[in-house]
Amino acid sequence: MAEFFVNTLQFSERLVTIFFDSFGKIFVPGIKVTIPLTLISFSISLVIAVFAALVQYARVPVLRHIARFYIWIVRGTPLLVQLFVIFFGLPSLGVLLNPFPAAIIVFSLNTGAYDAENIRAAIEAVPKGQIEAGYCVGMSYMQIIFRIVLPQALRTAFPPLSNSLISLVKDTSLAANITVVEMFMATQRIVARTYEPLLLYIEVALIYLIFCTILTKVQTVWERRLRALD
Amino acid sequence: MLTVKDIHKSFGDLQVLKGIDFTINKGDVIAVLGSSGSGKTTLLRCMNFLEKADSGVLIFDDEEFDLHKIRKKDINRLRKKTAFVFQNYNLFRNLTALQNVTIGLTVARKMDKKTAEEIGLKMLDKVGLLDRKDHYPNELSGGQQQRVAIARALATSPEVIFFDEPTSALDPELIGEVLSVMKDLAEEGMTMVVVTHELNFAANVAKKVIFMEDGQILESNTAEEFFKSPKEERTKEFLAIINHDN
């Protein structure tokens, strides 16, 4: 009996030690890789999304068809497959990318395609009267788009855009598959050494949860602020 | 100053304007009356190119334009000489009252911000809303929004302001404040074309009245003559019904 307790105690001690030893080893790649990967990809994706939404809204010839095609391809294929095509596939064509930039490209294009649809819907929801009023004060089409339509649309698109940011935080774990040493990859390495998969995968899940909870809080505060203007 | 000749406009099979001729002189205050669907709003929108007329000629300050073929560049140039007040205000929802008033100056006319704000504040003062300058449209009542919209129209010193049923979307108790601002403008000599159902306004403020029916101008006269001795049977009928409703 006593032996059992001693064993259990030693076992728990070991788990606690592994948990705290690993925390920094998982958290640091989170700050150094997961977060930059998310933020850089999301920023680029917003630019892509606004562009893809605008060329459709303004019915720009050719470009709007390219935008539709891009969105169709990206939304119709798995993110993991896209990562493999860019990282493992492109070298066959002589295009060799480092893991991190390859991940940035794929996440930007992927999130951009979904956000393009969110932003397009928000742009189309801006009442026609806003545009007419813009013409009547003497503004050009471009001035109306950038001063009136887009600011209002981005406000409407804020909740779905925050959601896609939160999804992206979690989706970056897929980059482990193309050898980006982000949080999940770091965790896998510790698991290989310590063989404590349950503890360590729950630990990394908790860290993702912390990141996403912070983002959700920020989203709530901002939404409240924006709602004051509606 | 502004003349339109023989404007035609159809929406699909529906002929909305069947040849309208119409002149606005400097200082005119013209009320455009008529029942719903008579084409008065469409006429106003065609004159500001919010609708593209099927045919017709517009002469503005001795420059003649074919309404169907007019180029974007000319449209933009002509629009800068006019202003438009909408039935449902259409204030820019992402801008404050003051920004709404100044954006036509700063963005469309590249005026420096300081001068534009001075003008903007003056215009807001004129419509009695200086204390609301930092409010967003959703924080203003309908009457206040429409007064900001009038300030926005005034800011760019237009040669003529078009009003499209400016009080139709307002609660009855808010109509007065908007009409009184418009009355002041008329007295200052602003050139105005007002599509309206407010007969009192037409009778007391307008100098001319145009009565439209079925896409045509049925009767056009000075306001005094129009209300004292309407010529057409249909006009008399219209006035009788409206007066009865009031």
Summarize the topology.
The complex is a heterodimer of chains A (230) and B (246).
Chain A: H1 2-57, H2 63-75, H3 79-89, H4 99-124, H5 128-136, H6 141-156, H7 158-171, H8 183-194, H9 197-227
Helix pairs in contact in A: 1-2, 1-4, 1-8, 1-9, 2-4, 3-4, 4-6, 4-7, 5-6, 7-9, 8-9
Chain B: E1 2-11, E2 14-24, E3 29-33, H1 40-47, E4 55-60, E5 63-66, H2 72-79, E6 82-85, H3 97-106, H4 113-126, H5 142-155, E7 160-164, H6 172-187, E8 192-195, H7 199-204, E9 208-213, E10 216-222, H8 223-228, H9 233-245
Parallel strand pairs in B: 3-8, 3-9, 6-7, 7-8
Antiparallel strand pairs in B: 1-2, 1-4, 4-5, 9-10
Helix pairs in contact in B: 3-4, 3-5, 4-5, 5-6
Description:
- The complex is a heterodimer of chains A (230) and B (246).
- Chain A has 230 residues and is mostly helical.
- Chain A has helices at residues 2-57, 63-75, 79-89, 99-124, 128-136, 141-156, 158-171, 183-194, 197-227.
- In chain A, helix 7 runs antiparallel to helix 9.
- Chain A starts with a helix and ends with a helix.
- The model of chain A has no long low-confidence stretch (mean pLDDT 94).
- Chain B is of the alpha/beta class and 246 residues long.
- Chain B has helices at 40-47, 72-79, 97-106, 113-126, 142-155, 172-187, 199-204, 223-228, 233-245, and strands spanning 2-11, 14-24, 29-33, 55-60, 63-66, 82-85, 160-164, 192-195, 208-213, 216-222.
- In chain B, the strands form two sheets. Chain B has a six-stranded mixed sheet, with helices on both faces. In chain B, strands 2-1-4-5 form a four-stranded antiparallel sheet, with helices on one face.
- At the A-B interface, helix 5 and helix 6 of A face strand 6 of B.
